[in-house]
Design a protein that fits this description.
alpha/beta; Rossmann fold; 4-stranded parallel beta sheet; 15 helices
């Protein structure tokens, strides 16, 4: 099995490495979003795994327990909740829920109440990681205190202190992963591109479902053969919008003789954008990295996200952009209008696809729509 095939396997079987770790006596910490520091979880001796959904899976049980209006409206959040409630994440020992988008925040309240009301639910021990929605200097002390609370909780769970040495080692491993993923990103932006966006999503995503050391070994093997990768023909497309924890959209785009050369969602290149500054105290460096990481739609001001989107579209030499927004993803929807205007101002044709379902139920229709757009480039 090649390095890519192994990463692909872990992308498809997302619990594979975590269950093996658990089988060998280790403990697993799940987390939502890209705002939870993997470095601290690793330094505490745990296996960190990012929670993802399944667009083809049921959400029936989740929908029985959520308020139908205003709270937890996004399908992909329903999917993740449904997987927790039905035991798909029964290998988790602990679960960290950050104050990210409102629907993720509400999961903490809901799961806490359900766990208290009925102990038969397979809900792991929870921790709420309260973070602010700005990168203002004045918010940094609050972030520092919340990170100290998270560190203390991880120490309580593990029964041991997180030393500077352990944290520095974890930072080194995760920073190496980011550096290697940036090399993978450069294969997408090459002229011509050497890998597809679909391949890139699987490589990036698998890093969130494996131990970083193991993933780094696979990345080095994969990159060793990069000079032999054939070039790809067709339009160069940049994708912005809602979190894409699956391949549906990229597969449809790339079936139209196009390549997704870059993206700005948290399951794509944004995940590896910002390393931890190793010149700082290890703990302070982690706080700084997660306080000032690349913007997402929950962050104020939204202009940072718009600028980030345009900057990356230009740097990837994209010929066109697609902004793909899930139904009820209000924050992303707000930003999309400004993104489209800003991209077009840089002479990058941009298509907004709003109100999209987590599961693409009519891929042929979307393929036709995107095919017509690609032909205009």
């Amino acid at each position: 099995m090649t390095a890519f095939e192994t990463m692909q396997k872990h992308y498809q079987q997302r619990d594979l490495a975590a269950r093996e770790w658990k089988k060998n006596g280790g403990k697993v910490v799940g987390y939502f979003c890209d705002s939870v520091p993997e470095e601290l979880i690793l330094a505490a001796g745990f296996f960190p795994i990012r929670i993802s959904g399944d667009p083809k899976g049921s959400t029936d049980l989740a929908r029985k327990h959520v308020v139908p209006r205003f709270v937890m409206r996004e399908d992909f959040v329903h999917s993740m909740l449904n997987m927790i409630l039905t035991g798909k994440y029964d290998y988790l020992d602990f679960l960290i829920i950050p104050h990210a988008r409102d629907s993720i925040h509400r999961l903490y309240q809901l799961l806490t109440a359900m766990k208290k009301a009925d102990s038969s639910w397979k809900i792991p021990e929870l921790h709420f990681f309260d973070i602010l929605h700005t990168t203002l200097f004045s918010s940094a002390p609050y972030e520092h205190e919340r990170m100290l609370e998270l560190k203390a909780k991880l120490e309580e769970w593990s029964g041991k202190k997180i030393t500077n040495e352990a944290l520095s080692h974890a930072i080194s491993i995760v920073n190496e992963n980011r550096a290697l993923l940036k090399k993978v990103a450069s294969l997408r932006t090459a002229e011509p591109p050497r890998i597809s966006g679909t391949e890139a999503l699987q490589i990036i995503g698998s890093s969130m479902f494996m131990l970083k050391d193991d993933h780094n070994k696979l990345l080095r093997q994969y990159l060793d053969g990069a000079s032999n990768f054939p070039g790809r023909e067709g339009a160069r497309i940049f994708v912005g919008g809602s979190p894409l924890d699956n391949l549906q959209l990229y597969e449809i785009i790339e079936s139209n003789k196009a390549t997704v050369v870059g993206d700005e969602n948290c399951w794509g290149n944004r995940y590896s954008d910002v390393p931890v500054d190793t010149s700082l105290d290890p703990f302070d460096a982690v706080v700084d990295r997660y306080h000032n990481k690349s913007p997402c739609p929950r962050m104020y001001p939204l202009s940072r996200l718009v600028d980030y989107c345009v900057h990356n579209a230009v740097n990837t030499k994209a010929q066109a952009a697609i902004c793909y927004v899930y139904q009820n993803d209000v924050a992303e929807d707000w930003a999309t209008t400004d993104k489209i205007k800003a991209l077009q101002a840089r002479n990058i044709p941009a298509l907004a696809l709003r109100n999209q379902k987590y599961l693409i139920k009519d891929p042929d229709s979307l393929r036709t729509t995107l095919g017509k757009f690609v032909q205009t480039i």
